[in-house]
């Protein structure tokens, strides 16, 4: 099985859906759900009043990652 290479950071948008977020941070969507519930990853997101889809703000995600690395 051939492994898929991760895209460069600049190939990701500033707003990520949950699938894009999982790809961006290199984990499964199930783990993203756990990180949202238990590790504060949900603080990097917003839900527009119309549409109802939740988006994660990439610069805030980067800050969250840095805070967890300490």
TrEMBL record:
Protein name in UniProt: Helix-turn-helix domain-containing protein
Originating species: Pediococcus argentinicus
């Amino acid at each position: 099985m051939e492994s898929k290479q991760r895209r460069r950071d600049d190939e990701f948008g500033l707003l990520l859906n949950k699938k894009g977020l999982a790809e961006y941070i290199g984990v499964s969507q199930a783990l993203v759900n756990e990180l949202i519930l238990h590790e504060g990853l949900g603080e990097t997101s917003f839900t527009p009043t119309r549409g109802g889809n939740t988006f994660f703000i990439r610069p805030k995600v980067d800050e969250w990652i840095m805070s967890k690395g300490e």
